[in-house]
């Protein structure tokens, strides 16, 4: 879950992006991201140790980032409500995974995701 909040006394304008540290898992059949705004729940099954971890978002509003490939280029975060009132929040369920069509050459590869949030009050 990614939550952006405004603890200030005036509105907060924000924007952001997500990218990977390397292109090891990039491409049309590589790493993909889905973000859902204001989910009512988040479900995780499986486990990291078993390499069968699966997450999903319940309820909420789908965003433009739905099964979207990501790589080292900055992909803009969905900012439908980019202005947060004082005390307001914007919550997103974030699910990242490999495409079901990922090639075998991606086995044993890894990368790091970076979320960049820029805000002004």
Number of helices: 0
In this structure, how is the largest beta sheet organized?
Answer: 5 strands, antiparallel
From the helix content, strand content and strand pairing, which structural class follows? mainly beta
Taken together, the total number of domains comes to 1
Overall body shape: globular
Number of strands: 11
Distance between the termini: 23 Å
**How helical, in percent, are the residues?**
under 10%
Mean pLDDT: 89
| Content of β-strand | over 45%
In terms of per-residue confidence, which ranges show pLDDT below 50 for 5 or more consecutive residues?
A: none
Following the backbone from N to C, one meets helices and strands in this order, namely: EEEEEEEEEEE
Radius of gyration over alpha carbons?
16 Å
How is the topology of this model organized?
Elements: E1 2-5, E2 12-20, E3 31-37, E4 41-45, E5 54-58, E6 61-62, E7 68-69, E8 75-76, E9 83-84, E10 89-98, E11 113-120
Antiparallel strand pairs: 1-10, 2-8, 2-9, 2-11, 3-6, 3-7, 3-10, 4-5
Q: What does this entry look like structurally?
A:
The chain has 121 residues and is an all-beta fold. The protein is 0% helix and 46% strand. The protein is built from no helices and 11 strands. The strands form 3 sheets. Strands 1, 3, 6, 7 and 10 form a 5-stranded antiparallel beta sheet that branches. Strands 2, 8, 9 and 11 form a 4-stranded antiparallel beta sheet that branches. A two-stranded antiparallel sheet has the order 4-5. The model has no long low-confidence stretch (mean pLDDT 89).
């Amino acid at each position: 879950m990614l939550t952006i909040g405004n603890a200030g006394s005036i509105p907060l304008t924000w924007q952001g992006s997500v990218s990977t540290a390397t292109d090891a898992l990039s491409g049309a059949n590589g790493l993909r991201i889905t973000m859902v705004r204001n989910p009512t729940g988040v479900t995780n099954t499986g486990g990291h140790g078993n390499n069968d971890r699966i997450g999903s978002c319940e309820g909420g509003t789908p965003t433009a980032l739905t099964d979207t490939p990501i790589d080292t280029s900055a992909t803009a975060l969905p900012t439908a409500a980019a202005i947060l009132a004082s005390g307001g929040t914007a919550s997103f369920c974030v699910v990242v995974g490999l495409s079901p069509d990922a090639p075998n050459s991606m086995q044993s590869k890894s990368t790091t995701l970076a979320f960049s949030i820029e805000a002004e009050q």
